[in-house]
Amino acid sequence: MKSLCGASKDDKFVEFWKREIGLSVSRTFSRRIAASEGVVKQLDLYGKLKGHHGCVNTISFNSSGDTLVSGSDDKQVILWDWATKTSKLSYPSGHFDNIFQAKFMPFTDDRKIITSSADGQVRLGQVLENGNVDTKRLAKHGGRVHSLAVEPGSPYIFYSCGEDGFIQHIMDANKQGREGPSLVTLTPDMIMHILHLSRMQAMSFVEEHYNRGEAAESDEEGGGGDDAIDFGYSEDDDSEEGGNSIECDVG
Averaged over 67-95, what is the pLDDT? Predict the structure, then answer.
């Protein structure tokens, strides 16, 4: 199949149409359009969303794609109707420093928004029936928190990644925020932007491969030894590379 760079307008339309109705694998599609000159030339400015009073560090769509959430240095979270270029809701996040990431939790009717910040907090914003927003802290890192990753099939579980070298597994259930145990500790220069969960993910996992000579000692002491951490996920669909599991070695 021709690449999108050399494809006609009709060919490009077909590729995007197949992606929208689910006939194209997300990973395959993204590789086809990455750095595509033909696609870039079709882009134009649709409009500007004005409401923040500081740098906007994060934007994220809801599952239906009709609402956008943004977070800024002004510590405000804004929900946008991007089609009409209007703000639907704006609320103070409760953070004391710049917001680095904001995401909708799946299957919550866009009423739960998680945020992370330079203040080390991970917070939840709950949109109430009266339109007000209740915020609370779910977790605290020892450094800035740059990345959040939601569990695609769960309205309660997500992960946070901080400069303190920890990845935290966090659950919000029954209106009680719970900070789960850290899954893995890495050095700060290794942890940035490694959290990514596929939309087709069925199960996330972390495997520790210990140095065999030090495995027993490491287990007793709760650490030590040379560890290799594999991040991966399983998928229902078979990728073009084959197999249902993809691993990313980070240590």
Answer: 95
Tokens of 211: 């140095």
In total, how many domains does the chain have?
Answer: 3
- Segments forming the whole domain that contains residue 5: 1-44
**Mean per-residue pLDDT over the chain, rounded:** 72
What does the longest C-alpha to C-alpha distance in the chain come to?
63
Query: How far is the C-alpha of 205 from the C-alpha of 179, rounded, in Å?
Result: 18
Nearest to 110 by CA among 99, 121, 125: 125
138-158 burial: b if 16+ Cβ within 10 Å, else e: bbbbeebbbbbbbbbeebbbb
Strand partners, 116: 101, 122
Question: Is 0.70 topped by the overall pTM?
Answer: no
For residues 155, 195, 102, 75, the Cα torsion angle rounded to the nearest 10 degrees is: 140
